[in-house]
Design goal:
heterodimer; A: 368 residues; alpha+beta; Rossmann fold; 6-stranded mixed sheet; 6-stranded antiparallel sheet; elongated; B: 292 residues; mainly alpha; MetI-like fold; globular; transmembrane (chain B); membrane (chain B); Carbohydrate ABC transporter permease (chain B); MetI-like_sf (chain B)
């Protein structure tokens, strides 16, 4: 049985429905990431798990026990906030010990626990400092220490990395992942950053307007998006979404001043064949369009090679992003770093048809 | 670019001199009354009558101060101001403490434990700041009479607490509005309830606004004359009313030096409060002003 069960949860503030019928299951030791644009309800969902907000209907269970009516302190849940929410008037040691003190733990025992948590997070030398004297990364560690020390059955993280600079963010991301691997505690993590979601989660729930768009492993979300929103939201650079017309077993994409580009498939998916002569949206990730040198990196499968005009070249170190135009859209391709082509010239591009997905242009639903 | 906005060296100096001249002029203007009071409070009465108000004393005497403190005629008793000074202290300390504590509580509830109608309640409390003293005199007299504390120090404390609550609530509400809600959530998760969140998290971070409120309340209540004159009887009369009685008593000669000394004595506590914590006052007012 799942450890954390979110069962048909709805939440409304007056007439506004913030969460609509959300059901998610997480196994013990799992890492659930809630991701979505701002206002999608992900933080509200986290707050209902924490008990800071009451849910309107539905049930949340931890280890089989319904926790809906328990006050936050009795849920045995710890939370790391976006601002870290360290008490400014207490030093680091007192901050970490506060939750234990509120639970009536004697001082000796508390000190031992704090020392242990501080050692794990390597913040022993900071225990006497005030939060105002700490750097962003140190505050993050203290906030994690405050959560860890209570030995909770569930950790909640509310966008904990969004206040850090880019480099530190990557470091702390690794640290959170390491902490998860070390302690094996179940984690629910909220972020609007899809890279964080991909790197951290064992399960990702993509939310939009209070509705779960897709729930699955990072690989499922990335390779097998259920609709246009998920396809567009996850991945950086974003998936190319190109309008195309279905002709027989191929799709035809318009090009300016040139003949249309036709991608011929051995067999189009069943749903797509029904769109004969009509428009569909073709989704191809940048790494599935590449140059001949990178072709070797692709797994064997159906490929199409075509000559395309490159409009812009963006070297990114490890790769080169070259931008061409198909179906009236800018299409980003990811080429080998030794590729030597130039803008406004034609180059041979290899399309990996194994990785192509199709969507209905009106509803945005995936066609399989 | 930066240089062009700076006046050239010569005009800069001139501007600065003009600026200081104006500042010094205003400082002198404001300090002059204090100077007159202090200088004349250490002169003999003869010297004041015969000489210049502005001149320094020829014969220095602290006799007027001693007179004002313990011997001068207040009303019919030659007690000096000292018993009334004590009265004022007995009134001000609890009134300031209670109104500040209640204001802090109100601010906490109005910002961190929002309830339906909280805005209306706050609006009404804000309204209290704009009610003139005179309007509440008669209803307040009725209330004090009904609960049987008319003419007592407790009665005055109640009046000042009720009247000050609007201001103290306003101060604390604006201060706490800028206090991060996540800290309150974190305290909830940590298991702190309503009171412990307040006493352990909010209050220890409220230093500046407590200072502001205490100064504000202290000066207002200490300097109040109307409520003291209206609601106190002879045993609970505050310093301000006693000073008035001292200055306006019509028996014998007018002892200006004693009056000056008495006036300085009456103003001393608020002066000390300002000197000790004035810089927090400005800082705290700013903190409240930026957000809220």
């Amino acid at each position: 049985m799942s450890f954390l069960q979110i069962d048909k949860v709805c939440k409304s503030f007056g007439p506004i429905n913030v969460l609509r019928d959300i059901s998610l299951d997480v196994e013990e030791g799992g890492f659930l990431v809630l991701v979505g644009p701002s206002g999608c309800g992900k933080s509200t969902l986290l707050n209902t798990i924490a008990g800071l907000e009451k849910l309107t209907t539905g049930e949340i269970r931890i280890d089989g026990n319904v926790i809906d009516d328990l006050p936050p302190a009795e849920r045995n849940i710890a939370m790391v906030f976006q601002s870290y929410a360290l008490y400014p008037n207490m030093n680091v040691g007192q901050n970490i010990a506060f939750g234990l003190e509120m639970r009536g733990m004697p001082k000796g025992e508390r000190d031992a626990k704090v020392a242990e948590a501080a050692k794990t997070l390597q913040i022993e030398h900071l225990l006497d400092r005030k939060p105002g004297q700490l750097s962003g990364g140190q505050r993050q560690r203290v906030a994690m220490g405050r959560a860890l020390v209570r030995n909770p059955q569930l950790f909640l993280f509310d966008e904990p990395l969004s206040n850090l600079d880019a480099k530190l963010r990557v470091d702390m991301r690794t640290e959170i992942k390491r902490m998860h691997q070390t302690f094996g505690t179940t984690i629910v993590y909220v972020t609007h950053d899809q890279i964080e979601a991909m790197t951290l989660g064992t399960r990702i729930a993509v939310l939009k307007d209070g509705v779960v768009q897709q729930y699955g492993t990072p690989a499922e979300i990335y390779n097998d998006p259920t609709n246009l929103f998920v396809a567009d939201f996850m991945g950086s650079p974003a998936m190319n979404l190109i309008p195309a017309t279905v002709r027989g077993n191929g799709v035809e994409m318009a090009r300016a001043d040139e003949d249309p580009l036709v991608l011929g498939f051995d067999q189009l998916p069943g749903d797509v064949a029904a769109y004969e002569g009509q428009e569909v949206i073709v989704g191809i990730r940048p790494e599935a369009i590449t140059d001949a040198d990178s072709r070797a990196a692709m797994r064997a499968g159906q490929q199409v090679t075509a000559s395309c005009k490159i409009d812009v070249v963006e070297p990114a170190g490890a790769d080169i992003y070259a931008i061409t135009a198909l179906g009236g859209k800018e299409v980003v391709t990811r080429l080998h770093q030794d590729w030597f082509g130039q803008a406004n010239q034609h180059t041979e591009l290899v399309f990996n048809l194994e990785k192509v997905v199709f969507f209905d242009p009106q509803s945005g639903v995936r066609l399989r | 670019m930066a240089r062009s906005t700076q006046p050239s060296f010569g005009t800069g100096k001139l501007m600065r001199a003009a600026l200081y001249a104006v500042l010094i002029l205003f400082a002198v203007y404001y300090l002059l009354p204090l100077f007159v009071m202090l200088v004349n409070s250490v002169k003999t009465l003869d010297e004041i009558r015969g000489g210049n108000m502005m001149s320094l004393p020829e014969v220095f005497t602290i006799e007027p101060w001693l007179n004002a403190w313990s011997r001068a005629q207040i009303g019919v008793e030659p007690t000096g101001l000292s018993p009334y000074f004590i009265n004022s202290i007995m009134m001000v300390v609890p009134a300031v403490a209670i109104s500040t504590a209640l204001g802090a509580m109100n601010g906490y509830v109005l910002t961190k434990w929002r309830f339906p109608g909280d805005k209306i309640i706050f609006g009404l409390m804000l309204f209290a700041c704009f009610i003139p003293f005179q309007i509440v005199l008669i209803p307040m007299a009725r209330v004090l009479g009904m609960i049987g504390i008319a003419g007592t120090t407790s009665g005055l404390v109640l009046v000042h607490v009720v009247y000050g609550l609007g201001f103290t609530t306003l101060f604390f509400r604006n201060y706490y509005a800028a206090f991060p809600d996540e800290l309150i959530k974190a305290a909830k998760m940590d298991g702190a309830g309503f009171w412990r969140t307040f006493t352990r998290i909010l209050l220890p971070s409220s230093g500046p606004i407590i200072v502001v409120t205490v100064i504000w309340q202290f000066t207002n209540i200490w300097n109040d004359f109307l409520f003291g004159a209206s609601f106190a009887d002879f045993d609970s009369m505050p310093m301000t009313v006693a000073l008035n009685n001292l200055v306006s008593s019509s028996t014998g000669v007018k002892e200006y030096n004693v009056h000056f000394a008495g006036a300085v004595l009456a103003a001393l506590p608020t002066l000390i409060v300002y000197v000790v914590s004035g810089r927090y006052f400005v800082r705290g007012l700013m903190a409240g002003a930026v957000k809220g």
